[in-house]
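Running low. Got one?
___
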Amino acid sequence: MTMSKYNRSAATLSKNRTPDSISPFSGMCATCVEGCIGMCEIGKSAYRGPELIYPQPFGIITAASEKDYPIDLSHFSIMGTAAGAHGVPADSDHAIFTNVNLESSIGDRHPIKLRLPIVVPGLGSTMVAKRNWEGLAGGVALSGCVLTVGENICGMDDQAEIKNGKVVRSPDMEHRIRCFREWQQDGYGEVVVQFNVEDTKLGVPEYVITKLGVETVELKWGQGAKDIGGEVKVSSIDKARSLKKKGYIVLPDPDDPDVVKAYNAGGIREFERHSRLGMVTEEGFAQSVKELREMGAKRIFLKTGAYRPVDLARAVKYASDHRIDLLTVDGAGGGTGMSPWRMMNEWGIPTVELCCLTYQFVDYLAKQGKYVPAIAFAGGFVLEDQIFKGLALGAPYVKAIGMARGPLCAAMVGKTVGKRIQEGDLPVYLERYGKTMEEIFYTGVLLREKLGKDFDRLPAGAIGVYTYFQRLAQGLAQLMCGARKFALQYITRDDIAALTKEAAEISGIPYVMELDKEEAWKILKG
């Protein structure tokens, strides 16, 4: 079975000339013909070169792996039961899904209250996040969840003030934090700021903690979509030069005379800004944590990606030794604003396998009496059944699920719907619900009642995110009710069953035909 799709993808705006006759090994047309204009990745690479490394068009899309991994979350099934209840009295008047408690908390000494077990991981300087930030931040804040301001925000901010190599003001960073705090309700949720190598050199930690009052920060080792530093594209040569002066790696070199000629001629239209790789050492990690706490950070998170198992072991052990508040483990395949396309498909440990390894490692430390931080799983989670399965795979250590592409999709759709309502240009499939914000958005009336006159300035993207999260909340509550688990702390690993023996072997979750076997036969034998 071919797991990967080579040489053509909507992500790279490429396709085969002969879609019904493709070599499964290379992805090339079975007959590559002279005279073809070059629609596949190879052909387009012949005239656009490195541009084809990345998903396109940059700045208005997110992208995720097309690879068909051997094991995914659909290889597990949620188990319901007809008896008993955990968290409410075991009677039919109380055991209803509206009584399910979805609240959670993360953090060691200063816990964060969550209305839903959702964390939106670092969405940084990529344009698609910037364009949709107001909606994303507002919706996550109203939902009582965690939103992470990703890497390179200050470095990419044209209005940032930098003195002696350190940032002293960044309007973009201030805006991103303010967009969340403006809509935060009753102390639920939190806005987190993430750092990479360049951010640390630029003094971003000191700036956001001491000047902007940020209490929660995140050290970033990587993500599931790539194993190099973050990158974005810019179309302006002046912007490219500015980023180079700030110390970023910029390709092609905007100061190279030949590059300038190619840019002026229209051959080069974009520049890539790359971040440097972090170099993890235990001593360096300990020093970073110490310095952040001395600056005033109340909570410190760590995000790691789909690296090899030894790196996951380091993340788990260092997070335990230094009492990190949340460790987010991001599996391969999930998605991002911009990563090299083949890298996104062909590197790293997939989400299910990485979740299972994480469970093994943290369970070992817990049984040794060691501190175990709250864990968040990420990497392609978008709907309520996946959230349930992720919580069950890592129970009792997983306190939240990381989701980025889903919330960003909801923000983009909400913004588009709001614009069409404002312009009075509704397609038929929207017009059947009505013509106003309150009619078309399921939560519109509820939010207007909740927010009063402030509803009129709420970004439509925020309504989209909030409405999407309400769907997730009800769907998750219904699944939990069926499993008779009426609060998140009651979810256990035996609330799911593996549908294949391979999934059972990888996860340690019982194969469905072995589940409850001993207890079932005991009942039958009387």
Q: What stands out?
A: The domain at 60-230+277-526 is CATH 3.20.20.70 (TIM Barrel).
